[in-house]
Each structure stands twice: as structure tokens, then as C-alpha cells.
Amino acid sequence: MGVLNRAPGTMQKYSVGVLSLLMLQLALGQSTEVRTPVAVVMTSKRPGAEAVAPKIAQRVFDSFKREGVGGLLDDAATAKEVRSAGFSDPKSCQGTRACLGKLAILLGPKAVVVGIDVGKVGKTLAIHLEAVSADREESLGTLDVSSSLSGWSDAMSAPIVVFVRDVKAGLELKKKVAAVEPPPPPPPLEVARTDTPKKTELVPAPKQPGSELVEEVPGKPPRVAAWVFAGGAAATAGVAVAFGVMSGNAKSQFDASLVDLGDGTKGTRLPEDQARALANQANTNAAVALTSGILSAGLTAAATIFFLKD
């Protein structure tokens, strides 16, 4: 059974298709999954703190809302949900981590419960916040604040922001890369076979005018594949350069936003979401540039071999 070679254009389209799939896989790899819902609920009922505990719970809820956390449940909504699931009262937890974990499981497989435990001793308040997820044993964050009865708002102003941001960072699950398999190479074309052999007259075709100027070199293979590989190498090299430039620009913007905090650490002037987006953009573009560069190097080597092959 005879086999025909594929046309050069088909091979080039196949190479470009594989590169497109690699780039698509890198893009899909950036999709993230988050833990949700996030329930802010009072998880204790201690004498003397009944009046101030709801205010602190609302303050915590508003802080999560300002930081852009989605899927929030306030104290009333959380209590309603867990009671419908058969749990008597979240305040009976008395702030224990094990009980917070049970509440989170009742709310969903990836739910997070932020427990508000407030106690009063004399004129001093003891405030304990803890975030527990249904899918892990360790807390996503804790905060303990002690203040006077009238000064809890000022005492919590900065620590609560740090706590909320730590919990928000813990809401993100590991990135999942969607597996994209490259398509199989195109099958070779088959020549139809007939049962009756045909007689072929071996008569040389008449020479065309001017053909005597072209001399055939015996044993010299066609260089179609070499040109295809060279074209693919040039295309992928261009992709690598373009994404490398975009990665460098994103990194430069991020570096320009850094400021020295004076204690040996650095911070950024940008909002957290914008800083994280710049970092992700720089990493993604760098990965695409590296992949394209490796593919370009391989295609260049293949083209060189075909050009030098006798």
C-alpha cells in the first residue's frame, strides 16, 4: 500500500496548533478556586459582653466586605443556616476551634466560619477571633485583642485589617491546571490500490524551455521540512520575545510600587488586588515566553539538521 507525504502547509498548521494548545493550557492554569461561604458569627455568650459582642461581629463583617470577600454570611444568616442543619445555637460553642469546625462542615465542604468570642472581666474586654475552614485542621487566622470597654474600636482598627487580609489569602485554594492533550498527528494519505496492475510506459517527458539551466543533484533530499521547521522556529521565537517583554513590563510596574517600610521589609503602594494581578501577569507571561523559547530552540535544531543533511 503506497503512502503520500503530507503537504508542507499541513505540517506547519499542525506545529502552530500544538503551540496554541500549550498557550491555552498556561492560560487555563491560572484559574483559581476559593473557599466559600464565609460566615461571621458570634460563638460565645459570656456574662457582661452581651451588648458589645454584636457590635464587634458587625465590625468584623464590614471589614471582610470592604476587602472584597464574596459569599459572606452575617451572624443572623449563619445562625439560621446551622439551626436548619440541626445545630442548636452557635453561641454554645464558647469559642472552641472544634465546634467552629463543626459549624463550617454544616455550611458546606469548603465553608469558613469566623468565630467572634467576646468576654468581659471588670472594665476590660477580651476579644478572640478565629477563622476555621471545613476542609483543613489548621486555622486560617486568629486575633486576640484586649481593651477597655469603651476603647475596643480603636484597639481593633489595625489588627482587624491584618486578620481579615490573612484570612482572605487563605480562602484561595491551589491552582488547578486543566490538562490539554495535543491532537494526534494527521494520518498519512493512502493511495488507492487496484487488483489489476496497469502497464506504465517509461517515456521521459519532453523538456520545457529553460529547464536545461536547472541541474539535478543526485542524492540531495528535498528541503521542504527544513523550511517548515525554520518558519516554526521564527514564529515561536517571536512569541517568546513578545511575552518576555510583557512580563518585564509587569515586573517593572510591580517593582516601582515597592517602598521601604523601615523595618527591613518592603511594602507596595498598590492595592493588594492590583499588586497580586501584576505578579500573576508577570509570572504567566514569563512562563509562556520560556515555553515558546524552548520550542523555538527545538525547531531551530531540527531545521539545522535537515539543512545540513546530505
What this model shows, in words?
With 310 residues, the chain is an alpha/beta fold. 47% of the residues lie in helices and 15% in strands. A five-stranded mixed beta sheet has the order 3-2-4-5-6, sandwiched between helices. A two-stranded antiparallel ribbon has the order 1-7. A two-stranded antiparallel ribbon has the order 8-9. Helix 6 (224-256) packs antiparallel against helix 7. The longest helix has 37 residues, at 272-308. It is elongated. The model is unreliable at 1-8, 10-16 and 210-220 (pLDDT under 50).
Secondary structure blueprint with pairings:
Elements: E1 3-4, H1 8-28, E2 38-42, H2 53-66, E3 72-73, H3 75-84, H4 97-107, E4 112-121, E5 124-133, E6 141-148, H5 152-170, E7 189-190, H6 224-256, E8 258-260, E9 266-268, H7 272-308
Parallel strand pairs: 2-3, 2-4
Antiparallel strand pairs: 1-7, 4-5, 5-6, 8-9
Mean pLDDT: 76
Overall morphology: elongated
Distance between the termini: 28 Å
Strand order of the largest sheet: 3-2-4-5-6
Percent of residues in helices: 40-55%
Report the major sheet.
5 strands, mixed
Q: Tell me the number of helical segments per DSSP (H or I, 4 or more residues long).
A: 7
Q: Which value, in Å, is the CA radius of gyration?
A: 33 Å
Low-confidence segments, given as residue ranges, are 1-8, 10-16, 210-220
Summarize the structure in short.
This protein is α/β, with parallel strands linked by helices. The chain has helices at residues 8-28, 53-66, 75-84, 97-107, 152-170, 224-256, 272-308; strands at 3-4, 38-42, 72-73, 112-121, 124-133, 141-148, 189-190, 258-260, 266-268. Helix 2 packs across helix 5 (152-170).
